[in-house]
Amino acid sequence: MIVLGIESSCDETGLAIFDEDKGLMDQIVSSQQHIHANFGGVVPELASRDHVSKFVPLLENLLSKNQLSLNNIELIAYTNGPGLMGPLLTGAAFAKTLAWSLGIKSIEINHLEAHIFSPMITESELKPPFLSLLVSGGHTILSSINSKLTHNILGQTLDDSVGEVFDKVARNLGLSYPGGPEISKFSSKTTNSSFKFPRPMLKSNNYNFSFSGLKTHVINQIKKQELTDSIISEISFEFENSISDVLITKTLNAAATTNINNIVISGGVSANKRLRERFNKEKNKDISIFFPDLAFSTDNGAMIAYLGNLKYKKGEYDNSLYIEPNPSLSL
Ligand code: KG4
Ligand code: ZN
User: Fold this and answer.
1) With a threshold of 0.90, does the pTM exceed it?
2) Which own/partner pairs from 179-187 qualify as long-range (CB within 8 Å, at least 24 positions apart)?
């Protein structure tokens, strides 16, 4: 079976073709970062308009590159939430209309679940149960995933998500949006820092997180500085270490308590080089660590097509023409 995946929850238009037998065939991601960069965040109306103008050319390109035609597509999986209402609506309308015109089925995908399973696109030995740390622009959730692909939330952020804090700190450092990759670039230029930031809730007796206090602390420190490249690097370095300490400690505690030894880290922030390096240092004979391929860390259509295929095999699909994206869909 050949599945077309469509992602349009925020500022990336992602399309992908997944073949049940051969695995992922190809994907295309068109990023709108240049459109939103001057605004310091995503402008929903501009995002919607750009998605609408990209779907057809990206699909034509993807099909022709892979010697496929529209008639080869047998299922369309699309992001139904969470995300921005306008962008979600464009993807849902495109997916349902195309499925109806081709006489094939479509399936709604929860963007958060798609991130969680994204490492399985390339890690053939990875199967649930596993422990999942989802760190994206909108969410920070620690959960356990069982063999039936359902989840149990162990903890989550009580305020800001990790991605949000990366973006806000970057903005205060005068760096462009999205902030994560910019902070990572500066942090990699140093191997130490004269700054010392808090490790929020590190010792709390639960799996929840809180990052808004850290954000305020770092921004207050930034305001006291004459920002040179080397100061930006030192702040970025200590900021990444503070975030990494909290995420790694809590995740390892959860692994020990739940006795689940496969740890999966996904979502946009999982692209972070230092977070990857530091988590990978925790690998040992008992603990395995999995990250998605970098191409599937930030928003993409491959993870939507992959989960669409998994869910279809479980008998989940949608025959109606009703469209109901949910911007605040939860896990
Ligand atoms: O998963 P994602 O693409 O979109 C959401 O579902 O929210 O995550 C976007 C977030 C942004 O906050 C961005 O700054 C962050 O992921 N991000 C990074 C890196 N690349 C993207 N954060 C840290 N390091 C990176 N290399
Ligand atoms: Zn995402």
Assistant:
1) yes
2) 180/268, 180/269, 180/271, 180/272, 181/271, 183/236, 183/239, 183/240, 184/236, 184/240, 184/272, 184/273, 184/274, 186/229, 186/232, 186/233, 186/236, 186/237, 187/233, 187/236, 187/237, 187/239, 187/240, 187/274
